[in-house]
Amino acid sequence: MGNRSTFGSVYFAIFGFMVLALGIVELVVVSTGGMEGASWGPLEMGGMLLWWRAIILVFAGLIYLSSVNNFLDVRQLGKSVIASIMIWIVAGMEIWARIAGSIPGGPEEGTPWFNPEFLATYGPPYMPEIYLLPLSLVILYFVGRRKKQGRLS
Amino acid sequence: MGQANVGKSAFFNRLTGAKVAESNYPGTTVDFTKGHMLFQGEYVDLIDVPGTFSLQPKDKAEEVAVKMLGEEKEALVICIIDASKVERGLYLALEIIEKGYPVIIALNMWDMAKSVNVKVDTEKLEQILGVPVVPTVATRGEGFKELVSRMGQAAPVTIEEIIRSVGNSSRTHH
Amino acid sequence: MWEIAVELTIDQRWDLVDRIAKETIEVGAYEPTLRDTLADVTVKPLTGIPFAIAVIYGFWMFFSGFAGFFTDGFFVKIFDVHFLPWIQSVFPGKGTWLYFIFVGDPSAETCFESFGVLTSGLFLPIGVVLPAIVAFYLVFAFLEDVGYLPRLAVLVDGVLHKIGLHGYAIIPTILSLGCNVPGVTACRPLESRKQRFMMITLLGVFIPCAAQIGMMEGLIPHLIGWVFLTLAIGYFAVGFILNKVWPGESPEILMDVPPYQKPTWRNIGRKMGTRTSHFLMEAVPFFLLGCLIVAVMYLTGAMDWLGNALAPALTGVFGVPEETVAPLVAGFLRKDLAIGLLGGIELTTWQMFTSVVLLCIYFPCLATFALMLKEEKWKEFLATMLVLVVTVFVFGGLLNLIGIGLGIA
Questions:
Q1: What is the 3-state secondary structure of chain B?
Q2: What is the pLDDT of residue C2?
Q3: Band of the pLDDT at A36, cuts 50, 70, 90?
Q4: Cα–Cα distance between C266 and C65 in angstroms, integer?
Q5: Which of B6, B24, B103, B157 to probe the C interface (max C CBs under 10 A)?
Q6: Distance between alpha carbon C220 and the CA centroid of its chain, in Å?
Q7: What sign does the dihedral C40-C46-C50-C52 (CA atoms) show?
Q8: B16 phi and psi angles, rounded to 5 deg
Q9: Is A52's CB within 8 Å of C80's CB?
Q10: Which of A9, C15, C258, C294 is exposed most, by the fewest CB atoms within 10 A?
């Protein structure tokens, strides 16, 4: 069984760079633009905890890149798995915050209990982590494949 | 009784239906808890104690466990051992056996031991020690029926018998 | 005391263990699994610290989202828009002392401001603190069950070493973020008296519980980061000093890091249930009692008297108005209630920040206080209290000076 996967290495090398680049952009935004953030079309960066997200993305990107060599080795795979989990946490919590924020109708008197237009709040712009989430799910394929091989051997 | 983080509280909750906090780190239980369990048709007391490495306590929580053992002289001791680290738990088990308590040994986290490829020959262990040995997975409740049904077989053994049977089995082995 | 058949020496016993083990245990060839690697990379600083940052971020986001959903989304509306005007108009005898105690200020527009037993006394525990507690324990029980918490302990081991505590100390600390009571009991596995004393003191003084955090989240979400930073600085500074000053040993604590496991939902659910019902049964009466005491003290003039008496300290040293005496009194019962009551007082941002920090440290809640008495020897207990008083004055004074220096006090 080879420990090499050209597809895995190349994919996560590119993906790692993407994550790192977006993290650096977030860092730049937070240190120049402050809390207001910035947005380009369907992409936005901002909010109270942008600092945290920027740092997490930068690290996740670095961890991905360090896992690319000999990608299928279990120690290396472990790294890309935790980098992916880091992205899932951030993206998952953003989705959670959006859902939790969309349902109540508003605090003022006379507003309905539930927001009738809650679906509208799910539209773009999104923060970069949301875009990275589906791309990072590829790691599950490698984890699954490893499990299958483990059972067979 | 058993060492830290081998699943004593999970055991206790399984056996008594109580709600003692179980966590996946050492030192969750720092005091003893009493509960009841059904054993051979009647309710008996079961006591959950903090983990201890040996019967020479080195902190307050361990003291509780050792003191409790000293007070309950009639007790049957369920000695819980992490199946992937048997040696450590055996030491405590031997100490308790030496004190003359009837003991039943549960090799807990059996699934974990299997996944790290540690195999324990329970039959042989039983032969050597002369006390019942049951593999269990406390969080899922595996092995508990056997454990409870065999608790009656727990009887005090002397350490000489164990020393003798180790000698015997080594000889037959070679 | 025991009937001793044969006593083996320690070496003999280990020897016997070895011989038995040789006969019965077979350790097979073992290839590390993905689970092992994950266990490994999450404790190595280079990968573990970034991961820990992500976990803490996730913890906080879940917590604030959950609490925000229930508190700001629904409870504020239920209580302020519907319940408060209703009870203000329905309760008989406007202007009497009974009305003042139960409903509070008749012109109040929010349940933060009214101070009544049935208004603030119900809104604060149920509307603000309950969602926070549920959210906290949900994540906490999950991390606990998976086995992540001890890894956090290993990661911070290096820092805690500097103040004479070892990685295990993070477990009481994190437990205390839920509630100080289990945090203090979790200090028992610490081996030396010194470590136990230091830990209990640091927990009692600097660690806010989930209820307090929930209240802060409801009241001053934008300042929370600063409050935490201030408390963390205090935790390490006082820890550092105590380690130098207090006699005794700080022996190494060896802790096994358990393997990761799949979370058992039954266990998580059970923990949540116990904690939540515990809160409802024990905290809500204290909230009601606290509001009652505060209201009675206002009515009898005791509060004004106390406010005047403490004014030199409050305004002079800490730079906060003397009205904060009411939360201070309530804080002896429940500190979350105390922070909640700050919501009804007019304060500048800096005063709010100082008051919250002071409320966090000035007294452990009644339950923790009672437990400290039980867990510590008299000398240690008095020392803990001394540390507390000194810390309050040093911290409060420093914060006030910083505020004046920055021109924002």
A1: CECCCCCHHHHHHHHHCCCCCCCCCCCCCCCCEEEEEEECCEEEEEEECCCCCCCCCCCHHHHHHHHHHHHCCCCCEEEEEECCCHHHHHHHHHHHHHCCCCEEEEEECHHHHHHCCEEECHHHHHHHHCCCEEECECCCCECHHHHHHHHHHCCCCCHHHHHHHHHHHHHHHC
A2: 42
A3: low
A4: 24
A5: B24
A6: 17
A7: positive
A8: -110, -15
A9: no
A10: C15
Residue B120 backbone phi and psi in degrees, to 5: -115, 130
Per-residue confidence (pLDDT) for residue C4, from 0 to 100: 45
Q: Which of A32-46, B144-158, C20-34 has the highest mean pLDDT?
A: B144-158
Pairing of strands C25-27, B118-120: antiparallel
pLDDT for B21 beyond 70: no
pLDDT of residue B6 exceeding 80, the answer is no
Residues composing chain C: 409
Beta bridge partners of B35: B46
Enumerate residue ranges in chain C where pLDDT < 50. 1-5
Q: C258: cis peptide before it, omega within 30°?
A: no
Count of CB pairs separated by less than 8 Å, A with C:
99
C25's enclosing H/E stretch is strand C25-27
pLDDT greater than 60 at residue B158: yes
Domain positions in chain A are: 6-152
**Coil vs helix vs strand at C180:** helix
Residue A44 token pair: 């936005």
Q: What is the 3-state secondary structure (H, E, C) of chain A?
A: CCCCCHHHHHHHHHHHHHHHHHHHHHHHHHHHCHHHCEEECCEEECCCCHHHHHHHHHHHHHHHHHHCCCCCCHHHHHHHHHHHHHHHHHHHHHHHHHHHHHCECCCCCCCCCECCCHHHHHCCCECHHHHHHHHHCHHHHHHHHHHHHHHHC
pLDDT in tens, A57-82: 999 999 999 988 888 788 888 899 99
Q: What is the pLDDT of residues B89-137, one digit of tens each?
A: 888 888 888 888 888 888 888 887 777 778 888 888 888 888 888 888 8
**Chain C neighbors of B133, CB-CB under 8 A:** none
DSSP state at residue C167: G
pLDDT tens for residues C53-64? 999 899 988 988
- When CB atoms are compared, the residue of B25, B90, B94 closest to C171 is B25
Nearest to C146 among B19, B24, B90 (CB): B24
Contact (CB, 8 A) for C263 and C145:
yes
**Extended beta strands in C155-196, E state:** none
- Please report the domains of chain B, with CATH numbers, ordered by start residue: 8-173 (3.40.50.300)
For chain B, the farthest-separated pair of C-alpha atoms sits apart, in whole angstroms, at 49
Q: How far apart are CA A37 and CA A54, in angstroms?
A: 12
